[in-house]
Amino acid sequence: MSERTEPTEAPERVLFVHAHPDDESITTGGTIATLVDAGAVVTVLTCTRGEQGEVIPGELQYLLESPDALGVYRETELATAMHALGVADHRFLGEAKARWVDLPPRRYADSGMRWGASGAEARDILDPRSLSAAALADVAADIAAVIADTGATAVVSYDGNGGYGHPDHIRAREAAQRAAEVMGVDFFEIVPDDAGPIVVDVAPVASRKRAALAAHATQLTIDGDEFALSNGVSQPIGSTESFRRVVPETDPPTLPFREQSVATKIFAGALAVVFGALVGALMTAVHQSSVVVGDIAVPWGLVLALVATTGLIVGLRIVTRGRVLPILAALAVIGTTAILASPTIGGSVIVPANTAGYVWTFGPSLLVLLTIAWPNLPQPQATTRGHRTSSK
Q1: Are 300 and 228 in the same domain?
Q2: Which Pfam families match (predicted)?
């Protein structure tokens, strides 16, 4: 996509990233058809099969008894919608052509959602296979694989709130944006009609967008130029679709530890233990050191030991925005100190039973308790919530 309407010599290659079947038709169906007609190479990537969605037709209510059966049925609806829009390249995230190199196929499940006081919210208990439960790094890597395979020149997905707050929409947006930034590709977010600098006139392809919407019969109904989701609220199909290009940050923020891949977590955990053990050994060796200033013995060794340990633990807490690595480092300090505190064969004691010894022995334990109790700093939240314009 671009902010101009003139055709270019080289066809655009646009990747649309959506969370569930029907999202692509509701929010970008007209743009997809328009790009296809203009000669662009369009790929639609759907992250889940919408297994937790609702079912409108009475004769299909049996699908609610089996999320997998509903997912299979929605696959057929999506295939029909893709045909209506003219899309030849559709993929499900985690499949062979939408998975990072040399990794086995993975199926991302629909996370579902619930309505809370402030809008759509994640469920209290998540299926570990669900999209929003997956590490952001893993999801982004799979999307990056599609970008590399298709040679995409632009990636399109939701705004920062996922349109209306659905956790899968938010995860799809986060991962798509990160993948686009890593791959050096422009990222565009979907915004309300006429609210963005890029407004696509989809009136010429209205019949095809309507046909694509109608294909998702489990999720919505069509009445003339309007459609309604399971809540029964009519919405205009619309003759325009709007987008905004997101300018990437110079230095993308570090992912929280919980969003890292399993391999990264293991490696980081091992490093935290190693550094904790080193700090524990070195600081145990110097914690009894002091210097006499006037008539006062200044315990510089103990001060250095506590400052170094605090710096390690608090630094990890701030950088990782989590508790796992700082606790591992602190436990390594405590464990190393305990080992060195044991009497040697010759009977000498590195950590004697004096004030400095007691402080150094119990100080790191107190830091562990503070690390656990220290609450996470709140992350900025969107100040407005969009209306629900797509289904689960």
Answers
A1: no
A2: PIG-L
